[in-house]
Amino acid sequence: MQLPAKMIHSLFLVNSSGDIFLEKHWKSVVSRSVCDYFFEAQERASEPENVPPVIPTPHHYLISVLRHRIYFVAVIQSEVPPLFVIEFLHRVVDTFQDYFGVCTEAAIKDNVVVVYELLEEMLDNGFPLATESNILKELIKPPTILRTVVNTITGSTNVGEQLPTGQLSVVPWRRTGVKYTNNEAYFDVVEEIDAIIDKSGSTITAEIQGVIDACVKLTGMPDLTLSFMNPRLLDDVSFHPCVRFKRWEAERILSFIPPDGNFRLLSYHVSCQNLVAIPVYVKHNITFREGSSQGRFELTLGPKQTMGKGLEAVLISSQLPRGVLNTNLNPSQGTYNFDPVTKLLSWDVGKINPQKLPSLKGSMSLQAGASKPDENPTINIQFKIQQSALSGLKVNRLDMYGEKYKPFKGIKYMTKAGKFQVRT
Amino acid sequence: SVFLLILSNVSSNYLLFSHDLVGSNCAAVLGLCGLLNSSTCSDLFLLSTRNDDLKEMLESNKDSLKLDAMKRIIALIAKGKNASELFPAVVKNVASKNIELKKLVYVYLVRYAEEQQDLALLSISTFQRALKDPNQLIRASALRVLSSIRVPIIVPIMMLAIKEAASDMSPYVRKTSAHAIQKLYSLDPDQKEHLIEVIDKLLKDKSTLVAGSVVMAFEEVCPDRIDLIHKNYRKLCNLLVDVEEWGQVVIITMLTRYARTQFTSPWKEDGLFDENSETAFYESDEKKTKNGDEKKSYMMDPDHRLLLRNTKPLLQSRNTAVVVSVAQLYWHLAPKHEVGVITKSLVRLLRSHREVQYVVLQNIATMSIQRKGMFEPYMKSFYVRSTDATHIKSLKLEILTSLANEANISTILREFQTYVKSQDKQFAAGTIQAIGRCATNISEVTDTCLQGLVLLLSNRDETVVAESVVVIKKLLQTQPTQHSDIIKHMAKLFDNIAVPMARASILWLMGEYCERVPQIAPDVLRKMAKSFTSEEDIVKLQTVNLAAKLYLTNSKQTKLLTQYILNLGKYDQNYDIRDRTRFIRQLIVPNEKSGALGKYARRILLAPKPAPVLESTYKDRDRYQLGTLSHTINTKASGYLELSDWPAVAPDQSVRNVEVIEPTGKSKLSKSSDDKFYSDSGEEKEKGSGSSSSDDSSSSSSSSSEESSSEAESDEEKSSSQSSEESDKSSSLSEKSSSESDSEQKKTTKKPPQKKTVKPTTKDSACPLVCGPGERLHGFVSKQVPVSLSLYSLCILTPCPLSCAAALLQVSGPAFVPEKRHDLLHRMTGKGLSAQYQFPRQPCLYQPTMVSVQISLTNTTDHPLEQIHIGDRGPTGLDMHCFNTVECLLPEASVTVSLGVDFNDSTQAANFQLCTKEDQFSVSIQPAVGELFLPATMTEQDFRKEQGKLLGMNESSATITMAAENTTRQPISRQVATVANLGVVPSGQDNIHRFAGKTASSGAVVLVTVELRESSAALITINTEKSVMGPMLLRDLKRALARA
């Protein structure tokens, strides 16, 4: 008699056309026909995103995540916190991305052995074992072109020659014996602004979320502290496990022994009381007239509160109503594209020059005889502002202890649009 | 070759056939097959032929060839192809020296051992050998593979290996054995009893590596054996922060279940408190104590508190599963007023991936039904974006609806208006239902909603209209009297509505309220009679209903119509409709056969019907533990463990006590902490060495100017030491004392340094970086349990290198109190009020984390100043204990008041407003770093031990040239003590001077060493985990010692 075992039983990777291109079982083999339930749900869903993440089947539960247009479908046999599985699957995707640069079907197929080796190390009997990328890299070396060539010639392997020590150390996220000739630590403060702007241009909701991504290449066991000029801006934070929580609570200082390489040190949310400066405004005039087969479309963008920095990489996208057959628009700069099948309008604006505001004007042709759409389309905006964090968060200083050398330190700020929508 | 070319064009079946025929040309065909795509060549054929060369490769001498073969085999397995027939060839390589090859063989073995049991046994001896390997990682990996091979014959071998590994030196191997327990259990459940023994053993393990895995095994094998947890409960709570994230989730889930069986409910009392909160707030203490006798007040079990306290920091985890597991723990275990702490973290998770959002929103939906207040401030986070996935949209709608109340309903309805227009019609329909729910829940907006919904009836989209009709129907049912207009309006729209459900709803409404629309209803029926045959079933049924009701109320006009419809229904294709027609006819049309029922037709058909209740689908979800799979799918998943109800009476608490196992070599350690906690007060009295410094500060605060002069009056010491308890309670004394008799002040004594010991009075005072041993001990003290095992485990096993044993420190009196006063408010700027402050260097009695500050206020004007008090404290957020208002300060008089400020171990200034009746002055207190410490006593040996723990980044040092006069013990001690409030540590060497203290706020150890070298050089070393304070202190010391 086999008892229903907990945790992750099997994993299937499904591409957007519904083919299983990889399967891995940590316990006894589950037939891939279990995925039929998943395919059913996939067919029912109008968009790929609409497949429910948790699907119960008669004997199993399927928990899936969708990333890079690949579904990672985990098969579960009994009660387990669904987020446990979801979080793990995302960690798997992150690891693949870290190893192969991209996480596509082709990359996974090309590196199927490394993928298998990774999955084997990440789960033991369905329970997560090593999920830290630092540890994994000690166990299994990421493929590089050079190594692939060398491996084919010499027959050497991707598997680490030395046995890893990290898992056994008191600092499980950092491997020992790290050496660099150039010691450097870079921190990127990236803030995203989420906003919903209503028809009249007033802000319905706006909030700022930020992350500090680090790339630390330091020899030995450095111990870093990072302090802010205005830590009180941070309302809610979550840390990489390396950050000492008590220290943050007491002094609002980030004190940590960093992992080696790239990692996310901190994510934060800026307190809601602070009014969020909206860096861009949109003037729009989108009209459909009853009975007419033509609609007007006018859009002008301009910078609002950008603290003197320029708006870059501006990209507008909008899902036009189904009735729109085609558009005839004229951008003052950049290029625009309208897909008549998906009805998706996108306009790559580029930089905004405050002297000459970009605009997109013209007409839309509608299905003859169809009634006018009830809703005007929502406009999604993406942009970047370099060298500034919108909330005004500033790093005060970064100090290193525990090692003698002087590292090179760098901090970069950037603001991006997150989910920035303008309702028209 | 021409032959082969032709072959390549024929179908694969034919190819197979020719393969058999050609025979000798086999190799050439194989080559050809390699060139062909698998689609043209059958997989079976490809595989069987390829396997031969794979076999060959595996049997070769070259590792690279073998590796190549294994890689191809793994690729086959990954595609789900069967590669089992290679088993014999693969298994031979299990003992290979090449690590990658070996690993791939392991992968293969685990996959196919079940199918090839006999052959799999060949590999066992290799693993058995590896289990004895000196390298822990090899032992672990051998156990991992051995336990993954699902071959029943080796169960005894596995059992033995697990038992051995469970007592392995290496925690990593022990972790692997915990994993192996689950595997063996699922292979052979009969081993349960033996496995429980191993689990019991591993639960006692103090390593953070093992904790998560063994709890996982516990959950799988014997989740009902709660008794195994008792003794390990506190240890698990304390280790939790340092366990890896996945283990944290498992432990938290298990501890939630545990706590629900072991502690009493913290909620009942809450409810009572809420009811009485107003009276409790306004009424005097007296009354409360009276009530106290009647109500047995709820005291939370310290262990219950321990769990809540130790899980809270994990809300900041980057792992969403950990955050939600803590959230559910708080939801199920915390007193209601504390649950609020989880809100922010849950809202934060909404920024995460779509799938995470989905699960988190489901949990919020369940929570928000019971506790609107929790999420209402974050309402805007639930606004729907056009890019959200459908299931996310509907969950957000659900939550917004639950959050709606009188105050925010207008905002929500405005938002809903946008949603109704959405291109996603399914979502628009959902919004209409949500509006309906808001309308029933909040009576103020029912009419507005109804009007809005009526407007939607002219919407162009069918789904929207249909949904509106359905919702309007439900709303009208709740208050039909006022709305005949709407019914008429709907009748008008009826011709244009095609959605069956909507048509049926309108017909039902007409029938139900036909007496309110006597003109229209028969006309609608007439139209229906015309179109009856082409209607959907559901519409036909309602038409029959309408006909019957009209027949009963208005038979004159509708008799013929009704009969016509009944006749149509009689021959309908659908048997439901035929049945219904037959039934109705018997019921309403009087004839000789109709029995007694006919009399009641009116009462049956036109009975008043209760209005439907529009409620959330998440209403009953809380029957499942939040965060579980069962909660997500709203059905009991297999293996779901029910969360029990709180017990009415708490089971014996002492089961969680851990006997002291005095570890050899550590006895001294536990003894010293024993002393500290249990012989404290007694010790003071015995020694008679003076009052505790806490009561001292209260009285001395009022007599700063006399401080030094009152040194001699030690005869009062005893009385004051006895009154230490009193003064603790009456902290307000200090303010009053200034106006009270001098004799009170005279009690003040300047204490001889280093003699007095005061223990940190509350848990917060000793709180090192990782987790507070002080906190833990506090819990134990209150329960009079011998010193815990957890202290011991902490000392030897804390995984973070920066923890400290601050709990072992004993705070002493100050070595020296500097006279220096600082200006707080100059009399010119203060309009005659002048204020100065100084640091009396006494532990603050308001709160041990605070630094006490004395302020002397002087009135330099010629009129009395009234109501001197502290006003607004500015945004810095430093915790302060203010002095009581000084009602009146006469001209030329001065008064000293004391203040407690928690500087959070930083030299940030405390800004506040000093107010008089007329004026407000912004002032600030800027502490020197040295004032943020409390002196500590320790032996030289302890000092060295502490120092050993605080090396590396925790150490800052500098070499200086000492001033000539600073070369002997006395001046050095004096200089250091002037700069910083540290205690002198007795030193065996003449050239080394040591000082120790701890920071006031967090209780981190601060150690200073001054080592004299030749030619008046000296090395100053400071060891503290407070890496900001260290260098600052060093700078100050350098200045003091070099300069003076």
TrEMBL record, chain A:
It is a peripheral membrane protein. The keyword Cell division does not apply. GO terms for cellular component: clathrin adaptor complex; cytoplasmic vesicle membrane; Golgi apparatus. It is found in: Golgi apparatus; Cytoplasmic vesicle membrane. InterPro entries: Adaptor_comp_med_subunit (IPR050431), AP2_Mu_C_sf (IPR036168), AP_mu_sigma_su (IPR022775), Clathrin_mu (IPR001392), Clathrin_mu_CS (IPR018240), Longin-like_dom_sf (IPR011012), MHD (IPR028565). Keywords: Cytoplasmic vesicle, Golgi apparatus, Membrane, Protein transport, Transport. Residues 182-423 form the MHD domain. GO terms for biological process: intracellular protein transport; vesicle-mediated transport. It comes from the Eukaryota. Coiled coil: none annotated. Belongs to the adaptor complexes medium subunit family. This is AP-3 complex subunit mu-2. It comes from Oncorhynchus kisutch (Coho salmon). The lineage of its organism: Eukaryota, Metazoa, Chordata, Craniata, Vertebrata.
Automatic annotation (TrEMBL), chain B:
Residues 748-758 have a biased composition (Basic residues). The keyword Protein transport applies. It is a peripheral membrane protein. It holds the Pfam family Adaptin_N. InterPro entries: AP3_beta, AP3B1/2_C, AP3B_C, AP_beta, ARM-like, ARM-type_fold, B-adaptin_app_sub_C, Clathrin/coatomer_adapt-like_N. It comes from the Eukaryota. Residues 666-768 are annotated as: Disordered. The keyword Repressor does not apply. Its main location: membrane. Residues 689-707, 720-736 have a biased composition (Low complexity). Residues 671-688, 737-747 have a biased composition (Basic and acidic residues). Residues 932-1042 form the Beta-adaptin appendage C-terminal subdomain domain. Keywords: Cytoplasmic vesicle, Golgi apparatus, Membrane, Phosphoprotein, Protein transport, Transport. Residues 781-908 form the AP-3 complex subunit beta C-terminal domain. One of its GO terms (biological process) is intracellular protein transport. It is found in: Cytoplasmic vesicle, Clathrin-coated vesicle membrane; Golgi apparatus. Belongs to the adaptor complexes large subunit family. Subunit of non-clathrin- and clathrin-associated adaptor protein complex 3 (AP-3) that plays a role in protein sorting in the late-Golgi/trans-Golgi network (TGN) and/or endosomes. The AP complexes mediate both the recruitment of clathrin to membranes and the recognition of sorting signals within the cytosolic tails of transmembrane cargo molecules. AP-3 appears to be involved in the sorting of a subset of transmembrane proteins targeted to lysosomes and lysosome-related organelles. This is AP-3 complex subunit beta. The lineage of its organism: Eukaryota, Metazoa, Chordata, Craniata, Vertebrata. The gene is AP3B1.
